[in-house]
Amino acid sequence: MMQNIYIIGIGLIGGSLALDIKRKRPEAIIHGIDNSEDHLNQALELNIIDEKAALDDLEKADLVILSIPVDASVELLPRVLDRISDFGLVVDVGSTKLDICEIVKEHPKRRNFLAMHPIAGTEFSGPKAAIPDLFQHKTNIVCEVEKTAFKLQEKALNLFSEIGMRMRYMNPESHDKHIAYMSHLSHISSFMLGKTVIEKEKNERDIFDMAGSGFESTVRLAKSSPAMWTPIFKQNKENVIETLEDYIANLTQFKEMMEKDDFDGVYNEMKDTNYIKQILNGIS
Ligand code: NAP
To answer: Please, which residues have CB within 8 angstroms of residue 173's CB and are 6 or more apart in sequence?
Structure first.
């Protein structure tokens, strides 16, 4: 049974997991650990956690969920594993997987660790951003599952299935490569779209009034936290640069077609890319 659950980083992802887990396992005690005393107090008020805790309490943990920025996770995970009992499991939910798997590959408690990335989120952060059902029908990418003790992975994966996730198994290298295209590039393109418009449209009222035109949905991710995203881009630098090169080449080609009045080309480019509708309908 997973009685004592510790969440390190009680923000959007940690908080949302806490809400769903508590609904499925009302008997569990959810302990919160966070850098921010304010966030811990908010999480208590919002009934996201039952009590505050500290790293020294982790020997009592059945499950620890590490949901802090990816650079902090790489730094903290070995120390968390040092404290865990033979029967405890530590799960990390960070958006990059290679560095975190690398840092614990020789750790004596490697079998007490499960690396995963729930593909779910919003552009908001902190415990106030936590919402129930965030993980319903979402994919959970699990890396190096064979390196986790079978009984521990089974308990955790049952729990994550119960809160609505379907598992996909991948090695950390493939995860980081694919996620650079699917998630990291989308964030950069949204940030740079926001920047381009802010620089050009000096009148904030104009931006506000015309935002409904597609700009608002495309720029949504530019509201995301730089504290969370900078370490992701740093850890996944090579893959992200590769996606940017491909993306910049496509933008340049589009611009050149416009310069040459090649509007058949422009039309065909968009027509071909409409195929995304079928791809996304097929998996929804
Ligand atoms: P968040 O809402 O900002 O929550 C992170 C919490 O951890 C904050 O309360 C933060 O406090 C705290 N924290 C930061 N460093 C810490 C440390 N060293 N020790 C203890 N607490 C610390 O972030 P999030 O969006 O939940 O992201 C958490 C993790 O989930 C990240 O690894 C991210 O890559 C991953 N993830 C995010 C998404 C998404 O869409 N957001 C999706 C999937 C996975 P302060 O704010 O005071 O620093």
So the answer is: 98
